[in-house]
Amino acid sequence: STSISPLCLSSSSFTVCPISFPPVFLFRANTHCLPFTSVLVLPRHLSFFPDWASLTLGVFVCQACSLLHRSIPHISRVKSVQDTWDASEVELMAAMGNNAAKAKYEQKVPAFYYRPTHTDCKEQWIRAKYERNEFEFIEKQEPYSAGYREGFLWKRGRDNGQFLSRKFILSEREGALKYFNKQDARDPKAVMKIETLNATFQPAKIGNPCGLQITYLKDNSTRNIFVYHSDAKEMVDWFNAIRAARFHYLQVAFPGASDEELVPKLTRNFMKEGFMEKTGPKHTEGFKKRWFTMDDRRLMYFKDPLDAYARGEVFIGSKENSYTVLAGLPPSTQGYHWNHGITIVTPERKFLFACETEAEQRDWIAAFQRVINRPMRPQEYAVEAHFKHKP
Ligand SMILES: [Zn+2]
Questions:
Q1: How far is the CA of 105 from the centre of ligand 1 (A)?
Q2: Is the domain of 279 the same as that of 373?
Q3: How far does residue 62's CA lie from ligand 1's centre (Å)?
Q4: What is the reported pLDDT for 8?
Q5: 326 C-alpha vs ligand 1 centroid, how far in Å?
Q6: What is the CATH number of the domain that holds 38?
Q7: Localized where (predicted)?
Q8: Cα Rg of the chain (Å, integer)
Q9: Ligand 1 center to residue 87 CA distance, Å?
Q10: What's the confidence (pLDDT) of residue 48?
Q11: From 122's CA, which of 20, 285, 324, 333 has a CA 20 to 30 Å away?
Q12: Res 51: pLDDT
């Protein structure tokens, strides 16, 4: 059998097309082992030539994805490009390639469907595509596209922190996600309006690979619930069902808006989270360590990262509206333990924070700067007004 030297498939056999994005790798034509010219488009998250390929699917994958592909060996047989390849294997890759695979396996991905990063349940995206073929047959999308979903999730108890099984119902018709404390209860424990619903994967905080933080507004304040399911597919289906419900809600609320305008509004990941120290409005109360979450323009602080609601919320407007972030604290400030201060100036008052490390200080300032540099949208003035009227 013809065996191809590993060199032929190492990066020296490919050239990067300098003008296309996502990057396109061209097989170098007329090399002795590749009697054809072929074009491969790489996954969008790759900017370098990958070390791995799935022989059975005919796609190149990155190191992290290769590990996920290994967990479904009946679908995807992974091989290093440094390995020795025989001619039939090379031809197989050339016959499919990432471009053609995308056209086949992603032909009917709903607009609302979340394309994950490596930190939020990417394995389920790979399984949905290649194992369950969900994006070739729309009837397989029913768990998240039907407009109604009900089932049980493990929900963290507000007071004792224990996860307990709770029934959840998502109904587009009712415009709400509800959960029930007792299985036969008629009245839900909480009704979360789709209008203000958000969900974000929080594996580290929740301690489950597909743990989901769901937030919603109640009386203009943020409420958190933390849920997971032992079957990751179930959790990802819930997440996409929430996105589908939000999508349809927004389509009605903003008729004429394009999918491209609505999709970024379906769910949002937090801009930054972590511990900082804070002091009170008089700046003489002493600094206390709190967990902070920057959710778009809402800076919230919690005693514990898994608290159901924030101890306080600060609205961060734009520079045009007199919001500023500065490194450091006013000279007279006392009582902090961490040395990397941040001062946020709002039209009302100054907020003083202290970070443990310089890197944290830099990251927080960058997060604040991002929203401060962005002009406020009309509806954000209404949100700002709610904050001003808070006692
Ligand atoms: Zn990857």
A1: 16
A2: yes
A3: 4
A4: 37
A5: 37
A6: 1.10.220
A7: Cytoplasm
A8: 25
A9: 25
A10: 54
A11: 20
A12: 74
Cα 229 from Cα 290, distance rounded (Å): 28
What's the domain count of the chain?
3
Alpha-carbon distance of 303 to 290, in angstroms, equals 5
CATH number of residue 373's parent domain = 2.30.29.30
Per-residue model confidence as pLDDT tens digits over 292-324: 999 999 999 999 999 999 999 999 999 999 999
For the chain, the distance separating the N- and C-terminal CA atoms, rounded to the nearest angstrom, is 80
> How far is the C-alpha of 27 from the C-alpha of 239, rounded, in Å?
39
Query: Which residue among 210, 239, 265 closes a domain?
Result: 265
pTM recorded for the entire structure:
0.86
The alpha carbon of 67 and the centre of ligand 1 are apart by a number of angstroms equal to 9
| Inter-residue contact 351 to 344 (CB < 8 Å) | yes
Residue 137's pLDDT is what?
97
Q: How far, in Å, is the centroid of ligand 1 from the Cα of 210?
A: 18
Q: How far is the CA of 77 from the centre of ligand 1 (A)?
A: 15
d(CA 69, ligand 1 centre) in Å:
10
Q: Are 232 and 252 found together in one domain?
A: yes
pLDDT at 183: 74
Give the H/E segment covering residue 275: strand 272-278
In this prediction, residue 389 carries a pLDDT of 58
Is position 85 within any domain?
yes
Which parts of the chain have pLDDT scores under 70?
1-50, 82, 85, 87, 389-391
- Show the domain range for 42: 3-105
Q: Are residues 260 and 342 in the same domain?
A: no
Q: Are 352 and 346 in contact (CB under 8 A)?
A: no
Q: Are 144 and 237 spatial neighbours (Cβ–Cβ below 8 Å)?
A: yes
**Where is the domain boundary, 250, 265, 280?**
265
| 181 Cα: distance to centroid of ligand 1 (angstroms) | 39
